[in-house]
């Protein structure tokens, strides 16, 4: 809508009439968005429905207020320069319509911190008599810390590092700032869609507005188009316009106009499919502190054993003794996690994972301690598959020597292995023959699997809720567990030998302090 047309509808603004006058110009969904004063609000929307234009009106009113009236700076972040220019021009128009005292648009640079470095970012600024300003950025600063005010992230799904940008923006809420996130969708694996789902699920505080193209039309969007063109509204013209817009977007219309995120490009499993196979079961996590590996053997053993006895043993004791059990593990030492995934095979062949173990920064000896503790207590244990690449080979070999090479397989995962054994795992998700603990990090790991040159692999590292690095660790461990369940060995029973007969002490020979198969007993 042009400034002239706005002036025809919007009277000269005063403090008493400004809100009423603005509501008269804004369409209902635009007004509802502006009226929501939540600290964090998110709009998942159709293309070209004027929400950023409406946001600009609110931003002008905020920047024009005195500090005691709630005024503050506004920082707009689009993903390209054209968006920044379009937004700042809309703000300039609103400032004139509202009769606010504002300077001309200033084009310049502003220094933003990016880690330890400082970067000059091109900006477009409008300064108000209140002392506050609206700053439109032509790029995405990685860090907004040190700034204060309202942050508007536009077309958020298309920002390359939305997770990091959100972290920096949300820090402003501590001192009374606001965060507005506006975007169309770009796949269901996108960080923007994850943000929407977190708010809807209650995992993150905030408000979500969903505005489809058809809803915008019902609330008068085409009437605004006609007003801008200077032509009268006509029902037939509206119907043709709708048809033409949908035809223009073609197969992408569902995502671009109807606000339905598509399956992410290259994604192997959808979020909905993984979540449908999750149930209330725990992920038991143990992170060893820095320097833990330097403690005496006995002290390390005791600390880990206390955790095993208190947290893990009750879960193992609750397993069904009549079901066969399998085990998968992805190995990690100082960077990635070690993830252990036991499972029981139910009568209907569903592989049910009763819990997942995640070990971070745990020494090799203690990983062996944990693995043996778990496996020896799995009812009717038939097969384990372990990541035997790199440092994982030693642990896999120790377990194979303990439980037998027919029951512990050392897996060297190659592209060929993934090509052959990942499709059956996907089918298990589709056929509901797998059940996993409901956990965000497990979900993230499974979502990290991408189809690369036709093969499901884990290409990218992510960050877990503990702040540590993840590399699809749980996904690989689940794949190894499922592989083990498809190629079982013979069942194995255990008899724990008296400690005295073994001739050692827990604190000196702890690596031998595990039960052994009956057929290998001395």
Q: How does this structure look, described?
A:
It is a single chain. About 40% of the residues lie in helices and about 20% in strands. It has about 525 residues and is an alpha/beta fold. It has 2 domains: about 250 residues, P-loop containing nucleotide triphosphate hydrolases (Rossmann fold); about 220 residues, 2-Layer Sandwich (Nucleotidyltransferase, domain 5). Strands 9, 10, 11, 12, 13, 14, 15, 16 and 17 form a 9-stranded mixed β-sheet that branches. It has an 8-stranded mixed β-sheet with strand order 3-4-5-2-6-7-1-8, sandwiched between helices. It has a two-stranded antiparallel sheet with strand order 18-19. The termini are far apart.
The proportion of residues forming helix, as a percent range, comes to 25-40%
Please name the fourth-level CATH homologous superfamily of the largest domain.
P-loop containing nucleotide triphosphate hydrolases
Q: What's the overall geometry?
A: elongated
- In total, how many beta strands? 23
Strand content: 15-25%
* Spans of at least 5 consecutive residues with low confidence: 10-18, 495-522
* Radius of gyration from the alpha-carbon trace, in angstroms: 29 Å
CATH level-1 class of the largest domain:
Alpha Beta
Class per helix and strand makeup? alpha/beta
Q: Looking at CATH, which topology of the largest domain would you report?
A: Rossmann fold
Tally the structural domains: 2
Q: Helical segment tally?
A: 19
CATH architecture of the largest domain: 3-Layer(aba) Sandwich
